[in-house]
Amino acid sequence: MEREHNYMPERIRWKRKLFRIIFKADTKLGKLFDIFLLVLILLSTFIVMMESVRIFDAKLHKVFVIVEVIITIFFTVEYALRIITIKNKKDYIFSFFGIIDFLAILPFYLSLFIPITKYFLIIRMLRMLRIFRILNLMDFMNDGYFIVTALKNSSRKIYIFLLFLMIFSVIVGSMMFMVEGDREGFESIPQSVYWAVVTVTTVGYGDVSPGTPLGKFLSVLLMLAGYSIIAVPTGIVTAEMRNKRQELGKSCSRCGNNDIDDDARFCKICGEKVV
Amino acid sequence: MEREHNYMPERIRWKRKLFRIIFKADTKLGKLFDIFLLVLILLSTFIVMMESVRIFDAKLHKVFVIVEVIITIFFTVEYALRIITIKNKKDYIFSFFGIIDFLAILPFYLSLFIPITKYFLIIRMLRMLRIFRILNLMDFMNDGYFIVTALKNSSRKIYIFLLFLMIFSVIVGSMMFMVEGDREGFESIPQSVYWAVVTVTTVGYGDVSPGTPLGKFLSVLLMLAGYSIIAVPTGIVTAEMRNKRQELGKSCSRCGNNDIDDDARFCKICGEKVV
Amino acid sequence: MEREHNYMPERIRWKRKLFRIIFKADTKLGKLFDIFLLVLILLSTFIVMMESVRIFDAKLHKVFVIVEVIITIFFTVEYALRIITIKNKKDYIFSFFGIIDFLAILPFYLSLFIPITKYFLIIRMLRMLRIFRILNLMDFMNDGYFIVTALKNSSRKIYIFLLFLMIFSVIVGSMMFMVEGDREGFESIPQSVYWAVVTVTTVGYGDVSPGTPLGKFLSVLLMLAGYSIIAVPTGIVTAEMRNKRQELGKSCSRCGNNDIDDDARFCKICGEKVV
Amino acid sequence: MEREHNYMPERIRWKRKLFRIIFKADTKLGKLFDIFLLVLILLSTFIVMMESVRIFDAKLHKVFVIVEVIITIFFTVEYALRIITIKNKKDYIFSFFGIIDFLAILPFYLSLFIPITKYFLIIRMLRMLRIFRILNLMDFMNDGYFIVTALKNSSRKIYIFLLFLMIFSVIVGSMMFMVEGDREGFESIPQSVYWAVVTVTTVGYGDVSPGTPLGKFLSVLLMLAGYSIIAVPTGIVTAEMRNKRQELGKSCSRCGNNDIDDDARFCKICGEKVV
To answer: Where does the Ion transport domain lie (chains A, B, C, D) (predicted)?
Structure first.
């Protein structure tokens, strides 16, 4: 191995070294690079946020612009190096993080032509999800993976639930439009549907609220419905999580099946006794 | 079979063909018909919503009316054909979807006499529930059925819970009426009960809120109560869902364990092979 | 038995008959009496509510007063008969329903001296809880009992949770008072605590809301906390319900133990196999 | 034992006696001392709260100050005695309650120089957590421990969930800033993020609410998201609690089943006698 390494042309050795620093976090330099990246992401997000505050922007506009240019140049170079050093370029470019890395620099160049797009830079925050890898926190990664998996597995049920909820909201909203049509905030069905969703999800801004007794009565029914059916997504995710829990727990000594429930005494795949 | 078919009078053959297109989705034409129906439902819902927005209605009133007339004629013809082609006419007419199909066209004809009833057309949205059959999505249907069943099985418990909640809200509302009677929003017991429900369900519009220290103290108790008892419907539905999961599945022939996963080949409790 | 009955003095036979009508619902007259009672309770509640609405009271004050007098006289007579016909008078008078029955008539007589106490009549609604017995709905009674038991068993944990929540709200409220002291709604610590509870329970009236950036930042933390810890009462009640479920399910054929879990194969009390 | 005791110098015997009164609650004096302490804590909290109300402070400022001085002197002496009488001084001083005891007196002395810090006295409320020990309520302590443990064990998952939620809120907030930038309450990204958190947690103050149709549409999506993902922390804590229930309990010596109820005498899975 060592030998082969020595025979490698200088260019390839460099590429390998860079790849390890940029993509992995198992060397000192790689870790430092990742932490530096994290700081830059936070700094960049912070600056975009501050830039949107008029009084800060008035005073510090130039500083903001300079820092942003520097960070974006760094991110651009990093993105280029990622593409250069990785073998399977296509896989990276169209992977979740590859797309995020690209979207993290795109708005800056776009904003040279269309200024408002600058704020899309906030999408850089998604790069923070790399944080899990950076600090090599296996437990955190498992937990994050646990949440995402539970949500993904419940998603079909939740979509159907939301479809039911939307149909329900549109119908209730239309009824309220007929009942409270003259009142501000219920002038049209879309407006009333907006109110219905605000109510059924128990958000309750209060920018729109019923005025007539009949309207209030309907609202009360809607609130009670919302208060009751909030149980549905909760039930779905809870049941899913109870199931998923095990996946990260024990595994069968014979067949390696790692979906062992807490109360299992035999592996459900091969029938082996669970230790 | 083939023969018998050939002997059928032309009229009956046509009826069978139409029945299959309209009611089933297992032929190409049947699928196309269903998708076309879905588009019409969405378009119709969209137009009713837009028509309720004054500025759109002012500009496009004629277009809206024409499209609505066309869609309603189509729906009427479709409804007639459904009744003609099906054998068991009574069963269809009084089934859930039969009633929906009827209610989807009724408001239009009613609105010729009483204009406001036009907005009941929004009930057409319920026809969207056919979407599950249209795309032949068995998994989606199962999930929808799962949610509906869990809610249906929990419904008696939830009704009792809502009865408790209503009695509680009326009593708390009356107390608040005595405490805050002079303040706007608490002028009568029904008004105060409305406020109590808004609070206990954690909606909290803020159109009515307590003014006196004692009133605020009572509100705090009510909020804490609402925050705690939201657990009740959630607990009911979650327990029900966990149960449904098991009921829908297999059970072990030896030990009767009914928590058998879909991919299980052996009972996790006694090690028996799952048939 | 029959004989003994015949020898009973007329007075006692009447008492027995009345007792059965008033307290039980297993005879036709008893059922009718209970339904009549339920109607009166609803009517009385409705009238007290309507009386609090100024415009209705202005028009119909006399009608309201007359109906109320009649209903209260009926309830008073009924209360007297209940005491007369029952054997164990003390047990009834100090039972839950005995106290409710008394409180249902007290406010009327009190209101002759102190008018405002009239609205306490709303407590009559609690008599509606008899509804379960009236309609002899065993299943409904079981479900109501199920909810009450689950809440009772969880109550100690929920009280402790609420104690934590109160301490937390007082501390957060005090911090907000120091941060936003000059803003309306945060002028004193009790006011700020009120705001903190409104926020942490996700009610969010909006009658008080933070104004300074630091205040908004603290609010965001508080909301996220409230959003997360709502899981605690839910978790408590759900776990309790899952446990309680069984109590109404199977029971052991040998020892009669009726606390059989869904996945139990042996009775946990006597070790008998569960069928 | 008795003898050894007699030979102890007077000073040490006093120290032992005091230690038992102050730190324990197993003697009559110890119990009285604890209850007295609890009353003082409540009184002190109450006075700090009342002092913050302008009208009360105007009238009773002197009384408040005097009572506060007396209570603080008592707490200071108590704190000194605690340090003197305990053997392992370091352990106490840096323990949770040691720090609370110190923070309970610090703000008073600080407030002699910086008046506003007086309100930090509210931290004294945390001393109330001793209430569990005071009344020697083992069951309550277990339940409190149960809640704290369940939250602690779920905390890592909940932190990750909140991290996801924050990233999500920042991105949604930025989008709303671009959509509704001209409207009051959306003038900057931090403001819009504040709104996004208010919405996604279903608090919904209504101090900021969307004005444009597109803004309302985005809000509706955000609310539905918030309504759905509230299931995540609930699912996490519920699963954890169900587990804790089992962990705190016994397990079967034959089959390892760890779902053994408190009153179980036989394992419900294998029928083995529970030891």
So the answer is: 31-246
* Residue C3, number of CB atoms within 10 A of its CB: 7
Q: By C-alpha distance, which of C39, C46, C145, C45 is closest to B161?
A: C145
**Residues B137-149: what's their mean pLDDT?**
76
B271/C76: higher pLDDT: C76
| Pair C107, C120: CB distance under 8 Å | yes
- Please tell me which of the candidates A202, A206, A263 has its beta carbon nearest to residue C206: A206
Residues of chain C with Cβ-Cβ distance to B246 below 8 Å are 262
Nearest to C268 by CA among D252, D264, D273, B257: D264
Query: What is the gyration radius of the CA atoms in chain D, in angstroms?
Result: 27
Alpha carbons B19 and D108: distance in angstroms, whole number: 85
Residue from the list D203, D204, D269 with its beta carbon closest to the beta carbon of B269:
D269
Rg of chain A in Å (alpha carbons): 27
Residues of chain A with C-beta less than 8 angstroms from the C-beta of D238: 238, 241-242
Residue B111 CB burial class (10 angstroms; 0-12, 13-18, ≥19): middle
SS3 D266: strand
- Phi/psi at A210 (5° precision): -65, 150
Chain A residues lying within 8 Å of D188, measured CB to CB: 49, 52-54
Tokens of C70: 């009649």
- Of the candidates A99, C250, A149, C266, which has an alpha carbon nearest to the alpha carbon of residue D261? C266
Is this structure's pTM higher than 0.80?
yes
In whole angstroms, give the CA distance from residue A126 to residue A130.
8
Touching subunits of C (3+ CB pairs, under 8 Å) are A, B, D
Distance CA D60, CA D65 (A): 9
Which one-letter amino acid corresponds to residue A97?
Answer: F
CB C206 within 8 A of CB D204: yes
Task: Tell me if A194 and D209 make a contact (CB, 8 A cut-off).
Answer: no
Q: What residues contact residue B85 under an 8 Å CB cut-off, 6+ apart?
A: B15, B16, B18, B19, B22, B23
pLDDT digits (tens), chain A, 275 positions: 444 555 667 788 888 888 888 887 778 888 888 888 888 989 998 998 998 888 898 999 999 999 999 999 999 999 999 999 888 889 999 988 899 899 988 988 988 888 878 888 888 888 877 766 665 556 677 788 888 888 888 888 888 889 889 989 999 999 999 888 778 788 889 999 999 999 999 999 988 889 888 999 999 999 999 988 888 888 888 888 876 554 445 556 666 565 566 556 676 666 666 65
ipTM value, please give it: 0.81
Distance between CA atoms of residues D130 and D145, nearest Å:
13
Taking CA A89 as the corner, what is the angle to CA A86 and CA A90, rounded to the nearest 5 degrees?
Answer: 155
H helix intervals, chain A? 2-7, 10-23, 28-51, 54-85, 89-93, 96-103, 106-111, 131-134, 138-180, 189-200, 213-229, 231-244
Task: Please name the residue that has the structure tokens 């102190």.
Answer: C114
Q: What is the pLDDT of residues B227-254, one digit of tens each?
A: 888 888 888 888 888 766 555 555 566 6
Among chain D residues, CA nearest to A245:
D239
CB A205 within 8 A of CB B209: no
Q: Give the sign of the dihedral formed by CA A235, CA A236, CA A240, CA A241.
A: negative
**What are the mean pLDDT values of chain D's consecutive 10-residue runs (275 residues total)?**
58 84 82 86 90 90 92 92 89 89 89 83 81 63 81 86 90 90 84 93 89 91 90 86 61 60 65 67
Nearest to D249 by CA among D164, D142, D113, D104: D142
Amino acid, single-letter form, for residue D234:
T
Q: How far apart are the C-alpha atoms of D135 and D128, rounded to whole Å?
A: 12
Contacts of D172 (CB under 8 A, 6+ apart): D196, D200, D218, D222
Cβ separation D194–C224 shorter than 8 A: no
Nearest to D267 by CA among D244, C251, D257: D257
Chain D adjacent subunits, 3+ CB pairs under 8 A:
A, B, C
